[in-house]
Design a protein that fits this description.
374 residues; two-stranded antiparallel ribbon; 11 helices; 16% strand
């Protein structure tokens, strides 16, 4: 994925954008976010069977189409524009990436074909009860019992944790961190929906009490592949943030051209021009950083350390750019921007929630400093 998109990537972007514009307008998004499941199962099926979004970035041996992070980022940029409530990020951007990073062929063959077909949803439970996203702070335990594992602990802010068919729990075993698959309905597993700021993305509390789990990946400490999976998820989330920020800017500019004050469009006022110009600069900078991070995964273009640095960079920068764009969109709209009926507040809530997923920007900046030796 270079500075410009290929013809095939352009077609993919236009296809997804058109599909979401037709199938997921604002009225539908508001209806789904208030439903019991938080998304539309029928639309989920259509995205898998008609568009093939679930399988796009999965390897062909596991039922995927064999594309990479570049195409996945394109998909999520469009999803960010629409605020579609669906377990796509948790399943495709997070859980599938953890399975692939583990290198566990048996586990990939067990779960990824179902994900590719849209028949299986999954997520990863990272943060413990403390709320820390630092892998070093995880205390959820995993104890071996003959040839099985038993998990105990509490996980917070698990994306789509209440509806996921499979939860991949990060827990600490006697040989270090491990990743453990727990199916919904397993004895000892309980989930509860959390009241979150963003109504379009469901978060859950997950408790495991002497709960059996299947270990994913080789024996020994799994910190390295878990960090890689979370880095990829952060880049996917950054793509979603860029899309959301672009939607906010487009909405603000359209309103500034339409709204008339003192017999002239408010977009002609210097203050409004400055706001839009500043947001545009931040979005283009965020997109450039995202494109570079994505390019590092193409044909071994960058080292794991370089990708980790870029993943932390885009996490910090794209979070700030999205939040700023969402705030300025509300300001440019004035009084109507603060109302429930207008969608501006939904973008701000998504921006603020996404900003804290996998750690606040300050945590990512601290990681960059550690990685570069500052």
């Amino acid at each position: 994925m270079g500075i410009t998109l290929t013809d095939e990537q352009e077609e993919l972007r236009d296809l997804v954008r058109g599909f979401l514009a037709e199938k997921a307008p604002s009225e539908a998004v508001r209806r789904w976010m208030e439903s019991d499941t938080g998304y539309d199962p029928e639309l989920w099926r259509q995205m898998a069977t008609q568009l093939g979004l679930h399988a796009l970035a999965l390897p062909e041996p596991y039922g995927g189409a064999g594309y990479g992070l570049a195409e996945l980022a394109l998909i999520f940029e469009e999803l960010g524009r629409s605020l579609l409530p669906a377990p796509l990020f948790s399943t495709i951007g997070l859980a599938a990436q953890a399975l692939l990073a583990s290198g566990d062929d048996e586990a990939c063959r067990r779960y990824l074909p179902g994900i590719a077909q849209g028949a299986l949803t999954a997520t990863v439970a990272v943060s413990d009860e403390t709320g820390s996203w630092d892998l070093a702070d995880i205390t959820t335990s995993a104890e071996r019992e003959d040839d099985r594992w038993r998990l105990s602990g509490t996980k917070m802010f698990v994306i789509d944790g209440q509806t996921a068919d499979v939860i991949l729990v990060i827990a600490r075993a006697d040989d270090g961190l491990g990743l453990f698959a727990v199916a919904r309905g397993t004895p000892g597993l309980t989930t509860a929906r959390l009241e979150a700021l963003d109504p379009t993305r469901r978060l859950a509390r997950v408790d495991v009490t002497d709960c059996p789990g299947r270990r994913i990946g080789p024996a020994g400490d799994a910190t390295a592949f878990l960090r890689r999976a979370i880095d990829v998820a952060n880049v996917v989330l950054a793509a979603e943030q860029v899309g959301g920020a672009q939607a906010c800017l487009d909405d603000a500019v359209a309103y500034a051209k339409f709204r008339v004050q003192f017999n002239r469009p408010i977009g002609s006022f210097q203050a409004i021009k400055h706001k839009c110009a500043d947001v545009l600069l931040e979005i283009e900078s965020a997109r450039a950083a995202l494109l570079y991070a994505v390019s590092l995964t193409t044909d071994g273009a960058g080292s794991d350390e370089e990708f980790a640095i870029c993943a932390a960079l885009v996490s910090a920068y794209c979070s700030a750019a999205y939040t700023h764009a969402a705030k300025e969109n509300i300001q440019i709209h004035g009084g109507i921007g603060f109302t429930w009926e207008h969608d501006a507040h939904l973008y701000l809530k998504r921006a603020k929630t996404s900003e804290l997923l996998f750690g606040a920007p300050s945590m990512h900046r601290a990681r960059i400093a550690d990685l570069v030796g500052i």
